């Protein structure tokens, strides 16, 4: 629990720093390459140092915090680079969703298999992949707006004047809460309730992330055409109900089917939520706006780990799934009036 929490706590602290710095300097790629490169080194150190110098778990957590602070620069600003592109925010955020979902869909089963070979092997693989990202980032054209950009204080002040960003931020929070919930509680649920091994548990998680990744691009394009409200609200209600259903599944086959359905519904709402951030942010504040979205998302992930773990330990898995899914449904209902006021229903409105 604390190993996961350390990384996402660092996401919360550092996402805004990198976003504001990127907007103020009008650059993205140096921070992406630097963050990914530093993350590669720190992933390797987390794997190697404990055995080499008998590093305590507190020391491992300290390295994990540094790794999280570096990784979020690459993660958040890479998403911001997609915001800098034209052609429709829903489509661009759908591309981001494919990348994020595909990585997790591959990481869940691959991580489980690598873990069974050698405990620290997933960390070394993560280090190698982060290094590839660092090199690749240097080959990409940096399209960050540079004309008339504001300074740090002006950028932060500008976002304070856009409280409407709180709507997609709130959905980012609750969506990532369920992700954090599945990362800890879902993993333990599948292993203890259905007696699955690490590799099999990874496959169960992949049943969610595979459709979640593959369908985000077409659903992102759909949100450019029909607007953001329907995918976000309808998707959130159905998503929450499906999460509750997974926790009540009597067999592993039914739970697996529920994970697939959850992935499909999640793919409907995720790109629309991220695209709404793009819709509301002015071009010189995109890095800060996306950083805010990732901060709320990271806090949500932490809440999913801590609250989900606490509720599951005190009241059992079915109640924990009910709390996670029910919270998603309640938020969708409460946020509907705000979403209707923000709606931009046509492709021309959101694509420009």
Summarize the structure.
This protein has 352 residues and is an all-alpha fold.
Structural summary, described in words:
- This protein is an all-alpha fold.
- The protein has 14 helices and no strands.
- The protein starts with a helix and ends with a helix.
What does the secondary structure layout of this molecule look like, with pairings?
Blueprint (H helix, E strand, L loop, with lengths): L1 H24 L3 H25 L3 H27 L5 H29 L3 H17 L14 H9 L5 H28 L4 H17 L1 H11 L2 H19 L4 H29 L5 H30 L1 H26 L4 H5 L1
Q: Mean pLDDT score, rounded?
A: 86
Poorly predicted sequence stretches spanning 5 or more consecutive residues: 148-152, 345-352
CATH topology: Growth Hormone, Chain: A
CATH superfamily label: MFS general substrate transporter like domains
CATH architectural label = Up-down Bundle
How far the N terminus sits from the C terminus, by CA atoms, comes to 42 Å
Number of helical segments? 14
In terms of DSSP E residues, the strand content is under 5%
Coarse shape: globular
The level-1 CATH class: Mainly Alpha
The total number of structural domains is: 1
Instruction: Report the radius of gyration as a whole number of Å.
Output: 20 Å
> What pattern of helices and strands is seen along the backbone?
HHHHHHHHHHHHHH
Q: How would you characterize the largest beta sheet?
A: none
**Residues in helix, %:** over 70%
Number of strands: 0
Helix vs. strand class: mainly alpha
Domain Major facilitator superfamily (MFS) profile: 164-352
Transmembrane segments: 6-24, 31-49, 61-82, 94-115, 121-140, 202-222, 229-247, 253-277, 289-309, 315-336
Protein name: Sugar transporter
Keywords: Membrane, Sugar transport, Transmembrane, Transmembrane helix, Transport
